């Protein structure tokens, strides 16, 4: 597809969940998380593109609950920063130990969880990560929990004294919302990462068309995103290899 970054299939993987649903030991659960990295490494080798980065996917607490709360941040007030650090630590440790090039803290719905991840990252001084939020569909300038996105980003960057977070942004949102997000974060001097979904909405019964869905291809939005500071651009749910190939072509033309 022309992708320069691939993510591991560890977005919903967590030691607790793997133990509960598969009946495995802690060590076996950790081995399964490590295998997600090995699969990505194998794909990179198969495609003979050694420069491709492997990003260890770290989804939010809500994603592992399978209740759509990664899109609402409903647990944001019930979990402390310390509890979230403890919950995320085993997976992050596994991904780093397995040799992922970077970490992808993604679809994070609330500032508190983002802060917890930045704090956890400090335990691994050599690691680098991007931090990507899920946002409110009705107010794209806010996190999914409803907090001003720019304030949440500044709070996290303020906690990142060593500069381990190399990009911030959003994912799994309608592509039509990305420009609003980038304008809201325009005064923040850090590279932006954006990888929206197809514009559809995930519900308990599956994916359904979004209210603002159009037939405009993902790649058509990319020049404006780059102009507004996006340096890492891709696609999330319901986007495929063809979409990424088209995005890659546009990016190469834009930066040529």
From TrEMBL:
The keyword Cell division does not apply. Residues 1-251 form the Hcy-binding domain. It holds the Pfam family S-methyl_trans. The keyword Heme does not apply. InterPro entries: HCY_dom, HCY_dom_sf, Hcy_S-methyltransferase. Keywords: Metal-binding, Methyltransferase, Transferase, Zinc. Pathway: Amino-acid biosynthesis; L-methionine biosynthesis via de novo pathway. Zn(2+) binds at residues 172, 236-237. GO terms for molecular function: metal ion binding; S-adenosylmethionine-homocysteine S-methyltransferase activity. Its cofactor is Zn(2+). PROSITE patterns: HCY (PS50970). It comes from the Eukaryota. One of its GO terms (biological process) is methylation. Gene3D superfamilies: Homocysteine-binding-like domain (3.20.20.330). This is Putative cysteine s-methyltransferase. It comes from Amblyomma aureolatum. The lineage of its organism: Eukaryota, Metazoa, Ecdysozoa, Arthropoda, Chelicerata.
